[in-house]
Specification:
The complex is a heterodimer of chains A (239) and B (326). Chain A is built from 9 helices and 10 strands. By secondary structure, chain A is of the alpha/beta class. Chain A folds into 2 domains: 1-79 and 156-239, Rossmann fold; 89-155. A 6-stranded mixed β-sheet of chain A has the order 6-7-8-3-9-10, with helices on both faces. The radius of gyration of chain A is 18 Å and the shape is globular. The model of chain A has no long low-confidence stretch (mean pLDDT 93). Chain B is an all-alpha fold and 326 residues long. Chain B has one domain (5-237). Helix content of chain B is 73%, strand content 1%. Chain B contains 14 helices and 2 strands, in the order ααααααβααααβαααα. Chain B has a two-stranded antiparallel sheet with strand order 1-2. In chain B, helix 4 (88-110) runs antiparallel to helix 10 (202-228). Chain B starts with a helix and ends in a 16-residue tail after the last helix. Residues 312-326 of chain B have low confidence and may be disordered. Chain A binds chain B through residues 50-52, 71-73, 76-77, 81-82, 84, 88-94, 96-97, 100-102, 104-106, 110, 128-133, 136-141, 146, 149, 152-153, 168, 170, and chain B through 3-7, 180, 183-184, 186-187, 189-191, 193-202, 254, 315-319, 321-326.
Chain lengths: 239, 326
């Protein structure tokens, strides 16, 4: 049984075909990169996967259960956790409360949510900021906090949109280390990133999108040497 | 402001309770019935402003109908007595439930809207209800208003009933704000897209907040009409809603103590300026503009800022390699 199946998904905004007949499958425990130039439809696809957009056509199923057309909160309850490209936090709430919201919504009681929040905060180097308002954290710390919130429940699939963008190298290493650790524990990830070295290091497989379509789907090193991919990224020809 | 949201909310509750303890002692000093009445009306507005603050300050939903729900609560009890001689002690709870149900139903319809659309829809609802009540002479006696019986002989009894309700509302809001549901509401206020992504049912919790806020307004209005002995469409005037909003904004939206401070400040100064007629509204408008421009956290936020300035601590989020908050 395939874990996550994306089958012929399309989405159009007026005259723009943002996602065109996209199909691929993700196995349980896979760490998949979704890459492509700006405007290629990666974030739109993540928005469809996490319930913010309904697809015009096609289907998405997790463990053979359809999830397309559900609301974002329903998709979250089916096991999807999402980190946004532009950080989205509860800015007037403390770091601890930001994590507790995610834990409560995932069905944890106060004790379990508090213990998990303390553990995640510690792992990500945010423990000393527990009582600080999220809006007062630095950009990198905010990104780590949003990332940490993804693991307050028991997510089946974690969707990360540009997790490595605009953060300090030490925080990027913290993030990468946590992703690797979770991956070793069997966590499934889909990572959208323009950080090709990070993708190459972390993700064994990459799906490449361009103009709303999947143009390559293979082992990451092979994909990055694919002539079509190089042309899409650089507008040039393969070496 | 210093301290986590948990610490801040506890501090606001403590100051609220100290403030209300002082209010409890005021009748020993204030013996003039007129000024006792002003304090009672201040408490009525404090309850309605606290209810509106639950919706606007803690859930981020801007309604223009708090006075309307107070009016509905008042008319529920008044009509039950007028037509069926049902005791206000039954009529007031019926009004609370009616407001909660109407708030829930209205919430289901309007809470998918945002910002100005939500505000305009609740304003339309408010005006429609007020006009219907004002023009239904056979049922409500229209603009003449409905005479309702007193529930106490003594003004002091009203004073302490309002105080009791205000204390219960403040304690209840504190428990709510610190609960799982309260965190969901604040998450929705800060970013409803992110809240939904975390698994929070945004429409459900917004609607629950609207319903509870409406019920609290209905409770305040239910008791209030038996104090002034009249249920009148004027209770639901947009001007009254404007006063409620001013009180919460001037005191400090999104804080437990703000609506309380704002209600007493605005109502008492309103009485002090009564001789200059409606132009006292200019003073409140100016206060709202000043708060909006210079200290958006309201009077309480200003006091907190002054408190922080007296005992500064280094900001823990500033790290040399990050260059501070972005």
């Amino acid at each position: 049984m395939t874990y996550l199946t994306i089958d012929s998904v399309s989405k159009r905004f007026g005259g723009l075909q943002a996602v065109a007949n996209v199909s691929f499958e993700v196995e349980r425990g896979e760490l998949l990169a979704l890459i492509g130039p700006n405007g290629s439809g990666k974030t739109t696809l993540l928005n469809i996967l996490s319930g913010y957009y309904a697809p015009d056509s096609g289907s998405i199923s997790l463990e053979d259960t359809p999830i397309h057309g559900l609301n974002p909160d329903q998709v979250a309850h089916r096991g999807f956790a999402r980190m946004f490209q532009l950080t989205r936090l509860f800015r007037r709430m403390s770091v601890m409360d930001n994590l507790l919201v995610a834990g409560y919504a995932a069905g944890l009681d106060h004790g379990a949510a508090s213990r998990r929040a303390a553990r995640i905060g510690g792992d990500l180097g945010l423990a000393h900021l527990n009582d600080e308002d999220a809006g007062r954290l630095s950009g990198g710390q905010q990104k780590l906090l949003e990332f940490g919130g993804c693991f307050m429940g028991e997510p089946k699939v974690v969707l990360l949109d540009e997790p490595f963008a605009a953060i300090h190298p030490s925080m990027k290493e913290t993030l990468a280390r946590y992703i690797r650790q979770k991956h070793e524990e069997g966590q499934t990830f889909i990572i959208v990133s323009h950080d090709i070295p990070a993708v190459l290091e972390l993700c064994p497989r990459a799906v490449v999108m361009n103009a709303g379509e999947v143009i390559a789907d293979d082992a990451t090193p092979s994909v990055l040497n694919d002539g079509g991919v190089i042309e899409a990224y650089l507008g040039g020809t393969a070496a | 402001m210093k301290g986590g949201s948990r610490v801040r909310t506890l501090r606001e509750l403590r100051v609220s309770l100290i403030f209300l303890a002082v209010v409890a002692l005021l009748p020993f000093v204030v013996r003039v019935p007129y000024w006792l009445g002003v304090l009672i009306v201040s408490m009525y507005f404090a309850i309605v402003a606290a209810a509106w603050n639950l919706l606007a300050g803690y859930t981020g939903q801007f309604s223009l109908a708090p006075a309307t729900f107070a009016m509905i609560g008042g008319y529920s009890s008044g009509l039950l007595y007028h037509h069926f001689q049902i005791s206000p002690w039954v009529g007031i709870p019926v009004g609370v439930v009616a407001c909660g149900v109407i708030g829930f139903l209205l919430g289901v319809v309007v809470l998918r809207l945002r910002g100005p659309y939500l505000a305009l829809t609740t304003l339309s609802f408010a005006e429609i209800i007020r006009l219907v009540i004002g023009n239904s002479y056979t049922l409500t006696r229209g603009d003449l208003g409905l005479s309702v019986p007193a529930i106490f002989e003594d003004r002091l009894a009203y004073y302490y009933l309002f105080l009791l309700v205000l204390v219960v509302v403040q304690l209840g809001l504190y428990v709510l704000v610190r609960s799982r549901a309260g965190l969901y509401l604040q998450a929705i206020r800060d970013d409803d897209v992110a809240a939904a992504g975390r698994g929070v049912n945004v429409v459900l919790w917004k609607t629950a907040s609207f319903s509870l806020s409406s019920a609290i307004c209905g409770l305040a209005g239910g008791i209030y009409v038996h104090f002034i002995l009249l249920a009148s469409p004027e209770i639901g005037l947009v001007l009254e809603t404007g006063l409620v909003l001013s009180m919460a904004v001037i005191g400090g939206m999104g804080t437990l103590i703000g609506p309380l401070l704002g209600a007493f400040l605005v109502e008492i100064s309103s009485e002090a300026f009564r001789d200059v007629g409606l132009s006292h509204m200019l003073v409140f408008s100016l206060m709202v503009i000043l708060v909006g421009r210079f200290f958006r956290e309201g009077l309480w936020g200003l006091l907190e800022r002054l408190r922080d300035r007296r005992s500064p601590i280094p900001h823990p989020s500033v790290t040399p390699e990050e260059g501070g908050p972005t």
